[in-house]
Amino acid sequence: MSEVNKKSLEEILSQLKCHFTWNLFKGKGVPDDLEGRVCEQIEYLDTKFKATMYNLLAYIKHLGGQDEAALKCLQQAEELIQREYTSQAEIRTLATWGNYAWVYYHLDRYLEAQKYVDKVKQVCEKFSNPYSTECPELDCEEGWTRLQCGGKQTEKAKVCFEKALLKSPNNPEFVSGLAIAKCYLDSKPQKQLPFDILKQAVALNPENQYIKVLLALKLQKMSQEDEGEELVDEALQKAPGQPDVLRSAAKFYKKKGDLDKAIELLTKALETTPNNGFLHHQIACYYREKIKQVENAGESETSGNREKVEELRKCAQDYCNKATEKGLSPLYALSDITELLETEECFQIAASQKFPDTEREQVHTAQCNVQEYHGESENTAVQDVLGGLSTSNKPTEKAKVEYQLQEVAVNPLPQNAPNYWYHQGLIHKMGGDLLQAAQCYEKELGRLLRNSPSGISSFFLSASELEEVRAEVGPGTGSSSVRQLPNP
User: Fold this and answer.
1) pLDDT means per 10 residues in the chain (488 residues)?
2) SS3 breakdown of the chain: % helix, strand, coil, rounded to 5?
3) What's the pLDDT score for residue 188?
4) How far is it, in rounded angstroms, from Cα 422 to Cα 425?
5) Angstrom distances, CA of residue 481 to CA of 120, 399, 462, 473
6) How large is the angle between the packed helices 225-238 and 209-221, nearest 10 degrees?
7) Residue 205 Ramachandran class (φ > 0 left, ψ -120 to 50 alpha, else beta)
8) Which pLDDT does position 391 carry in this prediction?
9) Residues 140, 160: contact at Cβ < 8 Å?
10) Which pLDDT score is estimated for 484?
11) pLDDT at 413
């Protein structure tokens, strides 16, 4: 193909509505667990929804340099659409054809890329623009894709479904997408109030058990737990092996306080997705909640219950280790603000490995949330330093961070100062002593959590250190309650 035609093709490709033009990751890289989640969805979703996941998987494969594998995924998507959406096949395949064109372009197979560009043109010319069109089906495809990517894409997914519903208000698929997006956003500062849309989604999609459990969780939040539990029971009966249903049902029972049932459901989910690191991590968190239950009940001092606590702690550690073995980034566990229970080993692993900027950014955000979580406004300077260490790449920025730490070293804080162990940890980290740095961070966490009624500080400080902290800070210092953060 001539250079002129190649340039013309490039201009056309930029107009296509597909994964290559939706800016899903904006140069930050694909989240480590996304491909696994997409493959899980392909295995357990209803057939007609699998095409969307194959399209996303094709894009992930392309970004990983596997263009031939991407083409096979697109073939699967196209075949599924032709079979499941006979009357809408052309409009439903627009994103797939756009992806085909982009992959062939990157393979330098320009004639084949042009062939798929022409397919898009034949459909779009029936409406207005020759290479793109406004239609609710495309908005829906984009919405599901962004929803699967998570993070900041969830808000954009909501907008996509709202846009689709303007043209087709009672479409079950569009309503379901909007309901799920609003549920995921419900923990954000601007509440999404998804109750009515969830009820509508359940009414329009009576066989969708996942949405049913999401409604149950919302009812539980509204103090209508009994009604919610009926929905959970119904969903588990109709979809006893569906991983997303099991995970959400586990969340329901965890909030109810029935941790044994929650762990049972997550363990069952592991039977179908044994390599899911997130599930292993979640089970570890639930075992830790069990430890807190025992300790809060004042039962941990008896011999039998001490053994029970140790057994629970061992289970938590085992699942934590399995999570990292299955590929879950140790930084994910460290950024789980609602737990703050990772072991010294996890700290060391996280400190000694290199991670993509996207993951470091998540941890930096998590560290900021820790500050808010404990109301420690005086830690702002330390937080800025932590942020610099996490995300700084430029030599000048690193030098600035080093200078800040040198100032701390030259003018040390007294040992009973609120930030003492944070500062010491940073100094050890910059000096390359990662083990000592991890121990300092653990001590600082223990101090921050010293008055928590859960006894969580005992995970980080020995009995003698706890007594030392109490002696230093005196009785009644700090808040005795811990504010509940929204889920990240």
Assistant:
1) 71 95 86 86 84 97 96 97 92 97 96 95 85 91 95 93 94 94 75 81 94 95 95 96 94 95 96 88 90 75 76 89 75 43 39 46 44 40 40 47 54 63 74 73 69 49 51 40 31
2) 70, 0, 30
3) 57
4) 5
5) 59, 39, 22, 17
6) 160
7) beta
8) 42
9) yes
10) 30
11) 59
- For 41, which DSSP code? H
State residue 325's pLDDT score.
82
The answer to whether the beta carbons of residues 218 and 195 sit under 8 Å apart is: yes
3-class secondary structure, 486? coil
Residue 387 is predicted with a pLDDT of 44
pLDDT at 301: 61
Burial of residue 293, with CB atoms counted within 10 A of its CB: 0-12 exposed, 13-18 middle, 19 or more buried: middle
Report d(CA 454, CA 240) in Å as an integer.
34
CA dihedral 302, 304, 307, 308 (to 10 degrees): -100
50 CB burial (10 A radius; 0-12, 13-18, 19+): buried
Which residue type does 267 have? T
Q: Which CATH superfamily is domain 3-133 in?
A: Tetratricopeptide repeat domain (1.25.40.10)
Residue type, 80: L
**Where in the sequence of the chain do the CATH 1.25.40.10 domains occur?**
3-133
Say which residues have a Cβ less than 8 Å from residue 34's Cβ, sequence separation at least 6: 60, 148, 149
Whole-prediction pTM value? 0.66
Within 47-123, strands assigned E span none
CB atoms within 10 A of CB 302: 10
Task: Provide the 10 A C-beta neighbour count for residue 430.
Answer: 18
